[in-house]
Write a sequence for this structure.
C-alpha cells in the first residue's frame, strides 16, 4: 500500500493532549541535536486542533494528514516538514518558518500566514484525499483523484513565497498584501478576488492563472509570465509592468491607468481650480484628484500640487523639478526615473510608491508643522516605498517614516535622516557618506553598518 493510500483510511485521528505533544517535541528536539533517545516527530494523522505550538521546532517532522484546525503555530519552525494533506484551517502561522515544506493538498482556508517564510514551499495538488464539509479527510474512490491545495480567505500579508509551487491551487479572496512572490509558480491557480497590493511578482509564472477581480495596485510584475492569464476586472492601476506585458491582449481586460483626452488643457484647468482651492483655504475651487492617471514622461517642473490626491498615478520619467507637493497623497504611485530634484515633498505620502532610479536630490521630505493648539507634526510617509538606486543626495528626511522601504543602492550622500524610522528598511549597498542618522531608528535595518 502506498503512503497516499494509507492516508485514505477513514480511521479517526488520535487526539493528542498538550502534555503528550510536549513529550514528542522533547524527543524530536533531541533528534535534531543528535542526542541519545532522540526520535523524529511522527504526528501523521494526529489531531492537534486548538493546541498551542508557538515557537516549537518541528522541522523535518512528519505531519502528513494531521489535523491542526485553529492551532497556534506563531513563530514555529516547520522547515522541510511533511504537511501533505494537513488540515490547517484557521491556524495561526504568523512568522512561522515553512521553507521547503510539503503542503501538497493541504487546506489553509482562513489561516493566518502573515510574515511567514514559505520559500520554495510545495502547494501543488495532492492525490487520493479530500475534505468533507466538516473538514474530515476521506479517501477518493479512484486513485487518480486530485486533492487541490487551498488558501482561500487566508491572510498572507508580507509573507515570503519566493519560488513556491502554487500551481492549480485555490487562492481566492486571499490577502497577500506586500507578499514576496519572486519566481513563484502560479500556473492555473485560482486567485479570484485576492488582494496582491504591493506584491513583488518579479519573474513569477501566472500562465493560465485566474486573477479576475484581483487587486494588484503597486505590484511589481516585471518579467512575470502572463500568457493566457485571466485579468478580467483585475485592478492593475499603479502596477509595475514592462513594455511587453502592456502589449499583451489579455491585459486589456484589466482596470488600467487612465489618460486625459486633452492632457494640456485638462491639466491646466485642474491646476487652476486646485490653486484657487489652496489660496481660499478650500472655500472655492476644487482640490486636484489625479489618481489613476498616466502622466508618464510629462514636463511638470514647478507644478503646485500641494495636498493633492495622486494615488496610483503614473509619472514614469516625468520632470517635476522644484515641484510643490507637500502633504500630497502619492501612495502606490509609479515614479520610476522621475526627476523630483529640489521638490517640496514635506509630509508627502509615498507609501508603497515606486521611485526606483528617481532623482530626489535636495528634496524636502521632512515634517510639516500643522498650526493647531496641539502643534501636530505631519511626517513624510515612505513606508514600503521602493527607492532602489534613487538619488537622495542632501535630501531632508528628518522624522520620515521609511519602515520597510527599499533603499538598496540609493545615494544618500549628505542626507539628513535624523529621527527617521528605518525599521526593516533595506540599505544594502546604499551610499551614506556624510549622512546624518542622529536618533534614527535603525535596529532592524538591513545592510546598515553599525
Amino acid at each position: 500500500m502506498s503512503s497516499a493510500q494509507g492516508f485514505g483510511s477513514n480511521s479517526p485521528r488520535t487526539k493528542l493532549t498538550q502534555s503528550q505533544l510536549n513529550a514528542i517535541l522533547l524527543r524530536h528536539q533531541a533528534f535534531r541535536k543528535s542526542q541519545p533517545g532522540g526520535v523524529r516527530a511522527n504526528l501523521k494523522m494526529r489531531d492537534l486542533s486548538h493546541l498551542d505550538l508557538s515557537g516549537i521546532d518541528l522541522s523535518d517532522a512528519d505531519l502528513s494528514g494531521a489535523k491542526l484546525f485553529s492551532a497556534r503555530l506563531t513563530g514555529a519552525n516547520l522547515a522541510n516538514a511533511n504537511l501533505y494533506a494537513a488540515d490547517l484551517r484557521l491556524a495561526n502561522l504568523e512568522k512561522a518558518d515553512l521553507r521547503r515544506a510539503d503542503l501538497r493538498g493541504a487546506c489553509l482556508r482562513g489561516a493566518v500566514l502573515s510574515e511567514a517564510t514559505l520559500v520554495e514551499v510545495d502547494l501543488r495538488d495532492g492525490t487520493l484525499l479530500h475534505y468533507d464539509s466538516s473538514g474530515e479527510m476521506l479517501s477518493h474512490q479512484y486513485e487518480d483523484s486530485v486533492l487541490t491545495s487551498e488558501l482561500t480567505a487566508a491572510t498572507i500579508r508580507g509573507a515570503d513565497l519566493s519560488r513556491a509551487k502554487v500551481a492549480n491551487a485555490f487562492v481566492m479572496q486571499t490577502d497577500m498584501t506586500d507578499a514576496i512572490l519572486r519566481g513563484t509558480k502560479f500556473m492555473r491557480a485560482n486567485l479570484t478576488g485576492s488582494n496582491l497590493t504591493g506584491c513583488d511578482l518579479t519573474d513569477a509564472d501566472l500562465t493560465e492563472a485566474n486573477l479576475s477581480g484581483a487587486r494588484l495596485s503597486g505590484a511589481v510584475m516585471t518579467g512575470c509570465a502572463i500568457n493566457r492569464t485571466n485579468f478580467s476586472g483585475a485592478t492593475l492601476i499603479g502596477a509595475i509592468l514592462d513594455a511587453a506585458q502592456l502589449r499583451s491582449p489579455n491585459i486589456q481586460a484589466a482596470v488600467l491607468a487612465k489618460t486625459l483626452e486633452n492632457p494640456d488643457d485638462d491639466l491646466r484647468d485642474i491646476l487652476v481650480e486646485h490653486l484657487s482651492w489652496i489660496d481660499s483655504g478650500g472655500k472655492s475651487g476644487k482640490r486636484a484628484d489625479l489618481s489613476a492617471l498616466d502622466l508618464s514622461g510629462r514636463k511638470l517642473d514647478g507644478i503646485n500640487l500641494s495636498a493633492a490626491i495622486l494615488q496610483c498615478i503614473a509619472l514614469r520619467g516625468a520632470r517635476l523639478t522644484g515641484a510643490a507637493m507637500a502633504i500630497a497623497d502619492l501612495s502606490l504611485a509609479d515614479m520610476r526615473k522621475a526627476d523630483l530634484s529640489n521638490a517640496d515633498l514635506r509630509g508627502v505620502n509615498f507609501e508603497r510608491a515606486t521611485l526606483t532610479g528617481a532623482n530626489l536630490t535636495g528634496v524636502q521630505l521632512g515634517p510639516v508643522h500643522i498650526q493647531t493648539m496641539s502643534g501636530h507634526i505631519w511626517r513624510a510617509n515612505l513606508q514600503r516605498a521602493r527607492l532602489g538606486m534613487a538619488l537622495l543626495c542632501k535630501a531632508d528626511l528628518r522624522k520620515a517614516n521609511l519602515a520597510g522601504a527599499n533603499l538598496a543602492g540609493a545615494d544618500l550622500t549628505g542626507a539628513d535622516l535624523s529621527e527617521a524610522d528605518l525599521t526593516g528598511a533595506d540599505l544594502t549597498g546604499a551610499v551614506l557618506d556624510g549622512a546624518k542618522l542622529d536618533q534614527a531608528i535603525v535596529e532592524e535595518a538591513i545592510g546598515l553598518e553599525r
